Amino acid sequence: MKFSVSGRTAATGVVAAAVSTVMLLTTGSTAGAAPAPAAPDIPVANVKAHLAQLQSIATANGGNRAHGKAGYKASLDYVKGKLDAAGFTTTVQSFTSSGSTGYNLIADWPGGDANHVVMSGSHLDSVNAGPGINDNGSGSAAVLETALAVSRAGYKPTKHLRFAWWGAEELGMVGSRNYVNGLSTANRSKISDYLNFDMIASPNPGYFVYDDDPAIEKTFKDYFTGLNIATEPETEGDGRSDHAPFKNAGIPVGGLFSGADYIKTAAQATKWGGTSGKAFDPCYHRSCDTSSNIDDTALDRNSDAIAHAVWELSS
After folding, report:
1. Tell me, what's the pLDDT at 34?
2. What is the pTM of this model?
């Protein structure tokens, strides 16, 4: 069951009706500027299909998708193939860390104002200990499916859309730091928003929103309010994921998180369900972070929230 469809549909209908009524009363018609297009629902089955591919890649390559290992490069090739077929312009950036070559994948959607870039990213690498399906297959798969939804919709945003999958995050945000450090001052200033998604389907999930840029934070909080889901500020991963290099460079950042090895409180379990006294992700950085270490509801809701923010901030 899709938890986001009815909430979004109802909210969209109310807003559309209100706009039409006001225009009819003031102008006698509903003619005028069209409202910004609503984001499509992101099929959670599609996101899970990407996760299944990442699990298969890890299984075939020593059980992980870590920096410098064959599983990472195979993961990048999988994502790139999907984006190339969907009409994105993709760029693979290489860097060296811990004696191994690492890779970032950047995908640009044609069109939109190149002086105002909305960028969404996630790290694609796992730790050596396991396949990293929640950390961070979940964010990587949801960002991929959002990008593919942009293509399916033939979306023509006002701002330029860019998506990224980072290498060597688990070694200290190496890939994203390399990318940001390589940007000229002028190109840094063109990124109006950077959205980060690192662990969004924890098996005992919370709903955490980065409290960095107020406008981005409000976009996510308003979405979850429309679903009657309370959120909390994200603190566990602050400065520990790929938004940090962007934030340090003065670029507005935001994002979503479902929790790692912090313990869910009784109040949080009352608010969100799940089990109090247990970690949000008991398999964090462990071999058991497999395809079975995913909460489908959190994956569904957060994937839809990503698409909502991409459409909202780029229109």
Report:
1. 60
2. 0.90
Q: How many percent of the chain have pLDDT more than 70?
A: 89
pLDDT of residue 238: 84
Catalytic residue flag (residue 169): yes
Task: Give the DSSP letter string of the chain.
Answer: --SSHHHHHHHHHHHHHHHHHHHHHHHSSS-SSPPPPPPPP--HHHHHHHHHHHHHHHHHTTT--BTTSHHHHHHHHHHHHHHHHTT-EEEEEEEEETTEEEEEEEEEES-SEEEEEEEEEEE--B-TTS--IIIIIIHHHHHHHHHHHHHHHT---SEEEEEEEES-GGGTSHHHHHHHHTS-HHHHHHEEEEEEES----SS---EE--SSHHHHHHHHHHHHHTT---EE--TTTTSSTHHHHHHTT--EEEEE--SSSBPPHHHHHHH-S-TTSBS-TTTTSTT-STTS--HHHHHHHHHHHHHHHHHHH-
What average pLDDT score do residues 87-98 get? 98
**Which among 169, 217, 234, 312 is annotated as catalytic?**
169
- Could you read off the pLDDT of 185-228 as tens digits, one per residue? 999 999 999 999 999 999 999 999 999 999 999 999 999 999 99
